[in-house]
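Hi R.,

Quick one: here's the Glutamyl-Q tRNA(Asp) synthetase sequence you asked about.
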Amino acid sequence: MSVAYRGRFAPSPTGPLHAGSLVAALASWLDARAHGGTWLVRIEDVDTPRCVPGADELILQQLAACGLVPDEPPVWQSQHGAAYQKALDTLIAQGAAYPCGCSRSDIERALAASGRSKPRHGELVYPGTCRDGLHGKPARAVRCLTAAPDGGDIEIAWYDRRLGAQHQNLTQEVGDFVLRRADGLWSYQLAVVVDDAAQGITHVVRGEDLADNTPRQIHLQRLLGWPTPSYLHTPLVLGPNGEKLSKQNGAQALDLRDPLLALRTSAGALALPDVTAHQTDWLAAMVAAWRDQRGAESTRSTQAT
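And here's the predicted structure, written out as tokens:
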């Protein structure tokens, strides 16, 4: 018996939607509609210092102007602290998570001493300093263990519907990652896994910049005994400097005086054909085009295996 499709768009309310975020929103909506499924919106506001007051409601208004309306009422991550704590307690009880007393400078010194000081994508690969105890330091964060029961590495292989077969040595390339931060806030990794499970998400469609997070989330899903969704990571929209378009590097808010024009631009980034139609008819045409595109790619990936 097949499981009913449930997808979601999960923006952070750090500002209004921009061209890059509309690409991800449109792709997730199209994928849900092409599967005859349910499309949800989840406001990922656990990183409260970065959230902009009113940005959540503005994002919902922007989506509605584009005809992208969720099938169920939106939810806010900031209301789910009890669920995150329950999951964290479970991980600690099974020995899969532990308190860490290391500061960033502590990690840098430990890595330098072991000859592993090179950052990974701007992140420091945690060397496991506190795996066997805090050594007199006060607890700061809580980390997820990335060692197998026999002490070996954790390696995650997964399939992306656009990028194909993926693989990551979680132990060597990421290290024990944070679940609750030193400032008491919940990490994105834990929050998204708990919420995807609670909402019964079967398919995740999001930007390619988040593909690197997927192995960590699959690791948590396995530890907690939850199903792993199907993943598809969409192409990134780049700014004039060649970097990912984002709120952090000055991406401008969507100009929605003509929502259809914004949608057509997003469809172009997804390699969908351009058609002339009113917005409602255009969206219906894009659902059919998405279904044709994904079906063709599925056929190619099957023939390649």
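The chain is about 35% helix and 15% strand.

Cheers,
M.
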